[in-house]
Amino acid sequence: MAEPQTLEIRDLSIGVGAHSVVDGVDFSIGRGEIVALVGESGSGKSLTALAIMGLLSGSVHQTGGTATFEGKALNLGDEAAMQKLRGTSLSMIFQEPVASLNPLLSVGAQVAESLVVHGRASATDAWDRAVETLRDVGIPAPEQRARQLPSSLSGGMCQRVMIASALIAAPRLLIADEPTTALDVTIQAQILHLMRRLRDETDTSVLIITHDMGVVASVADRVCVMYGGRIVEQAEVHALFAAPRHPYTKLLLSTIPRMDGPRKTELFSISGVVPDVSAWPEGCRFRTRCPLASNICATRPPLIPVSDAARDHVAACWHSDQVEGLA
Amino acid sequence: MSAPLLSVRGLKVHFPVATGKLFGKTPVVRAVDGVDFDLQAGETLGIVGESGCGKSTTGNAILGLAPVTEGEIMFDGRNVAALTGRDRQALWRDLQVVFQDPVSALDPKRTIAQSIAEPLAIHGVGRARRKERVDELMELVGLRPGQRDRYPNELSGGQRQRVVIARALALDPRLVICDEAVSALDVSIQSQVLNLLLRLQRDLGLSYLFISHDLSVVRHISDRIAVMYLGTIVEEAPTDELFARPLHPYTEALLSAVPIPDPLAERAKTARPLQGDVPNPMDLPAGCPFVTRCPLRETGCETIRPAAVEIEPGHRLACHVREREITGTSALDPQR
User: Fold this and answer.
1) What is the similarity comment for this entry (chain B) (predicted)?
2) How far apart are CA A258 and CA A267, in angstroms?
3) Backbone torsions φ then ψ of A133, nearest 5 degrees
């Protein structure tokens, strides 16, 4: 068999109190691959990412599932093991770069921190590496910038600092949770460009969590669409956009106003709202909003290949053969 | 063409910045620095730009929520700044706003019906008529009668935004300023609210000033679009014209930076992303505000502020270099 996947997640489930908020999530990320986890609020995408980092806390807890990292079993609940992994093989960047940085510490020291904490470099070496990494992510005059506090930097610069501190340890997997959502669109374009370059140059695997189908189209190799705490469809990015096979994916893509479509016309919309965690229907969780729903949908549809010819395109829908005619 | 419903001329909003120093000049942020536009009745003007460009401050100045340093705002022939007492109250019947965050816009201790009825009560509408009007408004925005006595925390984000819209429409306004009105909503809900705004405009003849950072949303809803950068409008044109033929280098960069939900088109893009960041608004270039990031800049751009010129009817542009390409001359040329 070929080299092991960078990350493999099997049957991951997460509960909040008595409710199941992530239910049986399976996916994997290959070496140098960019996988997008896409969904709306409450879909469970961010909790999935936090679970992979071992950062669930309080009343949110993992209720099932296994993980392997580069072929070795990984106990996401083992804090000591996860701590060792975070900042060496596994790094994460969050949506709010300004809130994620320490306001009282120079950005250079924050970028260097993971090398120092994990004992991988002396303070001076770590500082030099930090300056180099800041240069790599496109911070102008990094020698000066490294000595400044986050408050002297713009939001886009702070996100670059976050990315630099995630990259300095040369992680095997970068998890980016809505990394550009708080940024302006011209800065977003720079950051997405940087993420693609990073993958091309260092073969880092990336898991990007986003609600933005434009961002998915821009960077992802493979896409997992989440709804109601489950993956409802997974496919290679071109296949997903060209021929979605789950009604939610299809409808979601149809609701987005297009840059080249007709204007001031009625946009397609998905009726209703995402039900509350306590009110998810039995079986397919999308069926209360789905135009294709029928009796069989009260039974949970398996996530299976959409055809024999396309084994890596999977959808969880009893009516996936009718999706093309929707919208 | 008839007189515009809203006319803004030379609008400036400058905020002093607290430095903690007793002496010396107080620095100012020039949040809005000379903005002109007209909005016709029944029309939607979109204002797009990135954070700090002054688009929200422009809306707030029209609403009286930001101090006008200089310039004139005329609403239906009335100078907004000169209105006092009853006249000012009458203006609030005609001019309403929907902000981004429906959670903080609604009082958590009031029911939906109470929130929608509030402006009616303030404007002296009697109890019986108020109840009737609340029912009408709830139907108009697609809320169920059973939701009258619900509290905001019992509603979803999209439903809360419908409540805010119903309240804004209570007094039959002519102009609604939508400041990032759909930005906090999930995409599947966003399209529902956009459809509602379009239907209300058709049925009630509303005008919108639609302020947003989201270009695909602004494109969908607007008849005309003004692009702002650091306190000024750098380009303004009818929507189709702006997208087919963006002239200002910032507009071009902005349009090409928007990720398109189509991997083929997205990966075929060749334009290099715009480099650098927006400069500190306390320390603006004397000339063109875009000069620090502009791929077309020439000598003189950093010192001479480009004036907006009408390149063709309805298409205004503030760029020396593009102006010269099109008209053969610009303020950069010594002979002018």
Assistant:
1) Belongs to the ABC transporter superfamily.
2) 10
3) -65, -40
Could B278 and A184 be called an inter-chain contact, meaning their C-beta atoms sit closer than 8 Å? Answer: yes
For residue B195, the chain A residues in CB contact (below 8 A) are: 266-267, 269
The distance of Cα A16 from the centroid of its chain, to the nearest Å, equals 20
For residue B257, the 8-state DSSP code is H
Does A237 contact chain B (CB < 8 Å)? yes
Confidence (pLDDT) at B8: 97
Q: Which domain holds residue A291?
A: 246-325
- Bin A17: left if φ > 0, else alpha if -120 < ψ < 50, else beta: left
pLDDT by position in tens, chain B (length 336): 578 999 999 999 999 887 777 777 778 889 999 999 999 999 999 999 988 899 999 999 999 999 999 999 999 999 998 888 888 888 888 999 999 887 888 999 999 999 999 999 998 899 999 999 999 999 999 898 889 999 999 888 888 999 999 999 999 999 999 999 998 888 888 999 999 999 999 999 999 999 999 999 999 999 999 999 999 999 999 999 999 999 999 999 999 999 999 999 998 888 777 877 777 777 788 999 999 999 999 999 999 999 999 999 999 999 999 999 999 999 998 765
| pTM of the shown model | 0.90
> Is there a contact between B116 and B137 (Cβ–Cβ < 8 Å)?
yes
Q: Which residue of A has its CA nearest to B276?
A: A187
Greatest distance between any 2 Cα atoms in chain A: 66
Residue A55 in any domain: the answer is no
User: If you measure CA to CA, which chain A residue comes closest to B50?
Assistant: A184
Instruction: Name the one residue in this structure whose structure tokens are 């003004």.
Output: B226
Q: Which residues of A touch B157 (CB under 8 A)?
A: 41
B191: which chain A residues are within 8 Å (Cβ-Cβ)?
Answer: 255-257, 267-270
pLDDT in tens, B186-209: 888 899 999 999 999 999 999 999
In tens, the pLDDT along A274-296 reads 788 888 999 999 999 999 999 99
Q: Is B263 on the interface with A (CB under 8 A)?
A: yes
Domain finish residue from A124, A144, A167: A167
Assigned token pair, A255: 């609701």
Contact criterion met (CB below 8 Å) for A51 and A39: no
* Tens of pLDDT, residues B46-101: 999 988 899 999 999 999 999 999 999 999 999 998 888 888 888 888 999 999 88
- Would you say residue A221 lies in a domain? no
Question: Using the 8-state DSSP alphabet, how is residue A37 labeled?
Answer: E
Which of A144, A167, A190 is where one domain is finished?
A167
Which residue reads 């009560």 in tokens? B121
B280-286, long-range: CB < 8 A, 24+ apart: B281/B29, B281/B30, B281/B31, B281/B52, B281/B230, B281/B231, B282/B17, B282/B27, B282/B28, B282/B29, B284/B30, B284/B33, B284/B230, B284/B231
The total domain count for chain A is: 2
pLDDT, tens digit (0-9, with 9 covering 90-100), for A52-94:
999 998 889 999 999 999 999 989 988 898 988 887 899 988 8
Selection from A109, A142, A147 nearest residue A127 by Cα: A109
Residues found in chain B: 336
Distance CA B46, CA B168 (A): 19
Mutate to test the interface with B, among A187, A259, A266 (most CBs of B within 10 A): A259
Residue A300 clears pLDDT 70, i.e. is over it: yes
Taking CB atoms and an 8 Å limit, are B191 and A256 in contact across chains?
Answer: yes
Nearest-Cα distance to chain B for A140, in Å, is: 9
